Amino acid sequence: MAVRVAELVHAAATGDEAAFTELVSRHHQDMLRVAYVICRDPALAEDAAQAAWAIAWRRIGDVKEPTHIRSWLVAVAANEARRTMRSRRPIIHEVSVGDIELERVPGVRSDPQDTSIASSDLRRVISSLDPTDRALIALRYVAELSSDEIGRALGMSSSGARGRLSRLLLRLRGELGDD
Amino acid sequence: MTDFDQFEQRLAAALRSDADASVGPFEAGSVADAAIADTRAGARRLPRATTRSTRRYGRGRGMTLLAAAAVLLVGGAVAGSGILQQPMVVPPTPGPSFGLVATASTDATSPSPSDSARPSASPIPAAGPGGAWIAAGPMDTPRYDHAVVRLLDGRVLVAGGTLRWEDRRDGQTDLTSAELYDPDSGTWSVTGSMLKPGSGFPATVLRDGRVLVGDVDDPNADNAILGAELYDPASGSWTATGTPLWEGVTATLLGDGRVLVTGNDGAELYDPDSGIWTAAGTMIHPRHSHTATLLPDGRVLVAGGHAPADFDTDSAELYDPETGSWTATANMRSDQETNAAFLQLDGTVLVLGSETVEVYDPATGTWTTVADATEFHYQRATPLSDGTVLVTGLFDPNAESQPPCSAAALYDPRTAAWMTASSMLRCANGSSFTLLLDGTVLVAGGNDCQEDACVATGSVQVYTPPGVSPPPLPAFPPAPPPVFPTPTPVPTPYPPADGPVPPNARTWKVTVDNRSSEPVALFVAEEDGFGMTRPVGSATPNVVPAGATERVTFLFPADSDPDDGWIFVNPRPGEEGALVGAADIGIPGKIVITAEGQVGWLSPPGY
Questions:
Q1: A160 → closest Cβ in B80, B310, B378
Q2: Contact B81, B380 (CB under 8 A)
């Protein structure tokens, strides 16, 4: 698999559009997910991911470690999503009647066997974070990047990324009723 | 994903599920075609790495030429440090080569030239165009993310900070110790320790020379109690001084001697005469990652940053100490993090943001964009005596190959141009940057990190800007390499030991399907958020061979809360392993270890 990825990256860097399309098919979903967590808006997330691919097409030749292409791509998507958010006004997250009915009291599980996180809770809490914190969460828990990779992507030290993630996790535990 | 605990697994699953339910399907060919077409249409092009060095800093364009070049650093929202440097005014130095910088005092925080014991001239040749770095004496205690401030006599106080951080149960080790740097000898001496660790807001020199620093009782706690302390350089001792209302991001010494602290929760004032903290009016937009700059007329400009639960903001507002009120002023021209703001001799404020360099004119209340931000983002900006700004911690968020972490750049407001500076002797993550009276910059402490630990360094380096003579310091040996902590061994032995059998134990029998190529060890143990603490029950058998499926009997303490009981699955000896919550008891299913070593709870459809 690693060799194949390297071949794809090399081919795309030399202008092979089919190889580039294959990379899109492999990684676009992850990039969309990360962008969505940051933007909280499907259309903005798609715009950010699309912009990230434009950057990727121009700069894929810079990638020194082709096996790290995924972490690089999701980092570019995360930064495009943050850039998108900088130029926009706040979005008030829509809450449906169904969401309200399903809203749980933090710390109390309506069904003791249900340990999943309710979508309404998740959206409320994620929407309350600033874009950088959303990017930290997205890169860690959606893209599963290491702290080093997250630090490089967001321009903070590894220790800074770890510390901020630790604090975020504590906050999310509290707000999502995991105390 | 082996270091995810169950909550993190649920969070990851929920985030993915929510995203997948929200974004629609895509067609890879269309996405790729659009990206390629975007480039062919001449969309913004980014330089290749091979050409970056020549294009990196030359992006200045028609801009307002700024009067050289006194710099007042106020607010010090220096990204990533939480450290504030004291306000200081340094007059411009005419000509391209200015040797040692004379200083003048406009208030008590700015020492007069006679305060400095520095020689008036040096036989050492001035530094070249990129400046030069030399080593100074190491700190007594390695530290990073510490408070720092230049005292009125030119010495530098560092206090608190962090010694090490581990992604395990002992977390972060915070310091209370403090020490003083003597610029003449390049050495450090220990002074009195803070009463409590942490830093609730940046350190600030008061008009009488004492230093105000925020503290917290437990920096690792979510509900830490904030405090404040005063350091008296005359006695070298610390005393508590009142209780801040909330944590702050910037601290600004006002003309009347009070200190304005601003942050996410609003603004507050510290009165050194009474030691009392009070709310400072109502900020229009409480925020963080912003700057606060004392203007010549006594007002404070707060600009940029993030509003809580909001995005980068372009808003700016003014605090008037006379009336105690906030008023909006013109928005910046870009929404952006404002990494640093400096008052210039002409009374305007230079703001280096994440996107642009802008100048605020208090007389007209308007902003002017004078340059793009450097092509690289940066983490730290330090004003130099001639108005130039030293920028470090460069990174390119859209490139896999990054500039070395020791890379540095200079921004010259007179030409609005960026240029390459000499590389640091070592990286400066978590280091403090302090402009000294002789025009050099002290860079103290910092950290080195591995994947699961960061260790402080006591190493110190001094930057001599272009045209300035380096300080005549003796040669100091390099700081010793960091010693990373040995990973804490998993407390339960491997290979097997069944673990303690608790009295009146609750029994749970479950299938463990090990599809990996490694044997799996099982423990019933408590955990503290960072890993397993102590075994509290047993697993029989507690090893499932590679590729095997076993029916395992777990015994939990009778009084254990299901949410507090955990089964540790430890695919490899010596590793923390993954967790399966005992809350799954009663739900049909089994524990599965995949071929890749990921651990999960597999329930039949419908559960």
A1: B80
A2: yes
